[in-house]
From TrEMBL:
Cofactor(s) needed by this chain: [4Fe-4S] cluster
Keywords assigned by UniProt, alphabetized: 4Fe-4S, Iron, Iron-sulfur, Isoprene biosynthesis, Metal-binding, Oxidoreductase
Annotated family: Belongs to the IspH family.
Active-site annotation: E131 (proton donor)
Binding site for isopentenyl diphosphate: H46, H79, H129, S227, S228, N229, S272
Sequence positions that bind [4Fe-4S] cluster: C17, C101, C199
Signal peptide: none
Entry-linked PANTHER family: 4-HYDROXY-3-METHYLBUT-2-ENYL DIPHOSPHATE REDUCTASE (PTHR30426)
CDD domains: lytB_ispH
GO molecular-function term, one example from the UniProt record: 4-hydroxy-3-methylbut-2-enyl diphosphate reductase activity
Protein known as: 4-hydroxy-3-methylbut-2-enyl diphosphate reductase
Organism of derivation: Pseudonocardia hydrocarbonoxydans
GO biological process entries: dimethylallyl diphosphate biosynthetic process; isopentenyl diphosphate biosynthetic process, methylerythritol 4-phosphate pathway; terpenoid biosynthetic process
Amino acid sequence: MSDPVKRVLLAKPRGYCAGVDRAVEAVELALEQHGAPVYVRKQIVHNKHVVETLEERGAIFVDETDEVPPGALVVFSAHGVSPAVHAQAAERELRTIDATCPLVTKVHHEAKRFAREDYDILLVGHHGHEEVEGTSGEAPEHIQIVESAEDVGGVTVRDPEKVIWLSQTTLSVDETMQTVHALRERFPALQNPPSDDICYATQNRQVAVKAMAAQCDLVLVVGSTNSSNSVRLVEVALQAGAGASYLIDYAREIDDAWLDGVRTVGLTSGASVPEVLVRGVLDRLAEVGFDSVEEITTAEETLTFSLPRELRPSRASR
């Protein structure tokens, strides 16, 4: 009797979203047009491979703008920055390219609008994440960060009738809504954002994982540990019934022990992960008998974003 087939269920959509694609291309074009070095504040996207590849081409990643030489060119990452960072860059006479994801920019605009209207803004997100720091910086006197439903008891507002929630774009949809539900129990008049803050790509990748997780003995998520949306995919896979789930940057990180007794491996990747890393995992799995690959498609993504305005004229002339 032949052995049962070992198979891979490959999630689609996976990998690069439109905002990441735009941000990475922005750094690549800046290097082409201006030459090295090009400074980048924080990681352009949260992926080890992408950052190392751009470093090899002449990008220099820094934590703060005061590390950039006066007058030099700096790219702001896809996660966005606060007005204070823009002001610091102007003081140092830095040339800037803003690669903030347009969906993050949308949340910034929402924060500014509701601060002008004197709302208390409850920002669901993770303390210390660059995106949350950037959004909070738009209206620090109006914004409180709420990490989870457990934090809701400590929230205080000036007027319970004038409260709105916004969110970090890369969270788990389910966990965010649990937090919002707890907030609404405390503040029944809590308003929703004008449009969904959790980005389409984050939601789509979670839906794709949910569609296959229950069939999988193991789900591998390609992504870096500082990538919020990648970490969430591991959690979503486990909650949706996967036997086990692990986050890896590279195929070489797969532990052979994870594959003991496994017949179905689910595979996906976070929104900041290039497809070449997924292909590397597929090759590694094929070496140990997982050579049947079935793509599980739950959505087709066609959205694209135009490049930062600082790069558009040069691009048109290429």
